[in-house]
From TrEMBL:
Record-linked Gene3D superfamilies: Ribonuclease Z/Hydroxyacylglutathione hydrolase-like (3.60.15.10)
Record keyword Zinc present: yes
Residues covered by the Metallo-beta-lactamase domain: 13-195
InterPro entries per UniProt: MBL_Glyoxalase_II, Metallo-B-lactamas, RibonucZ/Hydroxyglut_hydro
UniProt keywords, alphabetically: Hydrolase, Metal-binding, Zinc
Protein name per the record: MBL fold metallo-hydrolase
Keyword match ATP-binding: no
Length: 215
């Protein structure tokens, strides 16, 4: 059975997720941990639950979602999976990290490219990869069909959507991604976003002022 643990890290209050199942294997999604206390919070949870990280996943590569990439790769001996179109986004972080107060930022590299239709497997769990650009050019989401749970990154928030004014962002593309990739899922699908509280597809169809569907 899939279990999801959420952490809110760094000044952006970015949601980092650890997904694990009965095999004790786990994946880390968007590690935003930067300072020592945040890194310890993540490692202590993994250690205290006897988990074994096997993969590192990025929904996209904006700074707040990748601050802990290098640490997780080194500390757990795991490799990074992300979309190829977000590789330039990841490489650019070093140039502006100090402007946001992250002077000690460590660079990381993508080890494996993932794209629409791929399946990420760990333990007895399979996550379907959805390509949902708009907030970032290579943004992906991870969907667990058995439990109807979606790790959505910064695409869809509770009554909001991801910003599109950053390099590679495009508002029309984002709305298209939401309508064609997310709103085609069941209304009861629970969305675990990159910031803020969880929501459901059905709720956002009705109440989201940016992308809701007229009934």
């Amino acid at each position: 059975m899939l279990k999801i643990k959420a952490f809110a890290f760094n000044p952006f209050q970015e949601n980092t997720y650890v997904l694990h199942d009965e095999t004790k294997e786990c994946v880390i999604i968007d590690p935003g941990c930067f300072d020592t206390s945040e890194k310890l919070e993540l490692t202590d949870f993994i250690a205290s639950n006897g988990l074994r990280p096997v993969k590192l996943l990025n929904t996209h590569c904006h700074i707040d979602h990748v601050l802990g990439n290098a640490y997780c790769k080194r500390n757990f001996g795991i490799e990074l999976y992300a979309h190829k179109k977000d590789e330039p986004v990841l490489r650019a972080v070093k140039a502006y990290a100090s402007n946001y107060g992250f002077a000690g930022y460590e660079e990381s590299e993508i080890d494996h490219y993932i794209d629409e239709g791929d399946v990420v497997e760990f333990g007895s769990t399979s996550l379907d990869v959805l390509f949902v650009p708009g907030h970032a050019p290579g943004h992906v989401a991870f969907y667990h069909a058995d439990t109807r749970q979606l790790m959505g990154g910064d695409v869809l928030f509770r009554q909001s959507i991801g910003r599109t004014d950053l390099p590679g962002g495009d508002h029309n593309t984002l709305i298209k991604s939401i309508h064609e990739k997310l709103f085609t899922l069941s209304d009861d699908v629970e969305v675990f976003p990159g910031h803020g509280e969880t929501t459901t597809i059905g709720y956002e169809k009705v109440y989201n002022p940016f992308c809701g569907l007229k009934r």
